[in-house]
Design brief:
Elements (H helix, E strand, L loop, with lengths): L1 H21 L5 E5 L6 H17 L3 E5 L6 H8 L7 E6 H10 L10 E8 L3 E5 L8 H10 L4 E5 L5 H13 L3 E5 L3 H10 L4 E5 H9 L4 E5 L28 E6 L4 H14 L3 H9 L9 H22 L3
Parallel strand pairs: 1-2, 1-3, 6-7, 6-8
Antiparallel strand pairs: 3-10, 4-10, 5-8, 5-9
């Protein structure tokens, strides 16, 4: 009996080792926890295309939005750590949302954080028919609304949501949040007049801003955006604590084999620096910084330390 047990363990170990060496030998899913056409979706499709070429295997992008990105993230956290189910993680779903949706998952212990993708700055946009032309008039307009000014974001617990609530607290104004399932639907409603304003990634808003269907008020980048040189940053206007990017990353379930993590990290870093990817990133106003898994995990911990206390303070429980 003892020999049979040892033999079984030997074969199990051999099969596992073989799977590691041949990974990926079937399609890999990359789950996007937000809707299509947003920044996370754009980044997922950039790397899926490149990774399919690198590994000669299909990388499939699936959008599963809802609850600030926690529905998809929780699903991936409970998946087998075999490298075949990944998630586009980031500041919204893995730094901010866990403080809003307690007990769904631990953003550190329940995931293997693989690679940093970067991302775009946040943008404050308004319907161009409103008497709002700058940040000062935005604050004044909000103060004039008896029941508070409504604003939208890609979802409860997203970066746009926390920046909106933090901005409202700083200025002692009432902003009423409406959470969507992605940035694309937010900007369409603002442009259509169903919503006065919104905080979301510049990527989501860019085309409608360029088409004069949205008015861009400010951005959260450290310096002005090349494509919008006349738009001031929050820092320029006296809000340095709002300087940040809506960064995204790639993660998998906790316990993923280190060699698969290293393979993915190297391939993703290379993919993000191809001419095609760099052209797309520049067009979308996204910034990418290659990181090793240890560097990314250190950055991740720092982001939790920075934004966690703010999330606890401003987000409803």
């Amino acid at each position: 009996m003892h020999k049979l047990l040892l033999l079984g363990l030997f074969f199990t170990h051999s099969i596992f080792a073989q799977n590691l060496n041949t990974w990926p030998n079937k399609p890999v899913k990359i789950i996007v926890p937000y809707g299509a056409a947003g920044s996370s979706d754009t980044l997922a499709r950039i790397i899926a295309d490149q990774l399919s070429k690198v590994f000669k295997q299909t990388f499939i992008v699936e959008n599963k939005p809802g609850a600030g990105g926690t529905i998809a993230s929780e699903m991936v956290a409970k998946s087998a750590p075999d490298g075949y189910t990944l998630v586009i993680s980031g500041i919204g779903s893995h730094v901010i949302a866990p403080f809003q949706y307690a007990n769904k998952y631990d953003p550190v212990k329940d995931f293997t954080h693989i690679a940093f993708l970067g991302g775009p700055p946040l943008a404050l946009v308004v319907n161009p028919n409103l008497p709002i032309t700058d940040l000062k008039s935005f604050v004044n307009y909000a103060k004039s609304q008896a029941n508070g000014m409504v604003y939208g974001s890609p979802g409860i617990g997203t970066h746009g949501n926390i920046i909106g609530e933090y901005f409202a607290e700083i200025n002692n104004i009432s902003l009423v949040h409406v959470g969507y399932k992605g940035g694309g639907t937010v900007v369409n409603d603002i442009a259509g007049g169903q919503l006065p304003a919104g905080f979301m990634t510049l990527t989501s808003a860019k085309s409608l801003v360029m088409g004069n269907k949205l008015r861009l008020i400010s951005v959260s980048s450290a310096k002005r955006i090349t494509n919008f040189p006349k738009t001031p940053t929050f820092e320029e206007l006296g809000y340095p604590k709002l300087t940040s990017t809506t960064w995204f990353s790639v993660s998998g379930p906790a316990g993923m084999p280190s060699n698969i993590v290293e393979k993915l990290n190297m391939a993703i870093n290379q993919s993000m620096q191809t001419p095609q990817a760099r052209e797309k990133l520049e067009f979308e106003d996204m910034e990418f910084t290659p990181m090793t898994p240890p560097e990314f995990n250190k950055f991740f911990q720092n982001e939790i330390s920075t934004w966690g206390p703010i999330a606890v303070k401003v987000l409803p429980k």
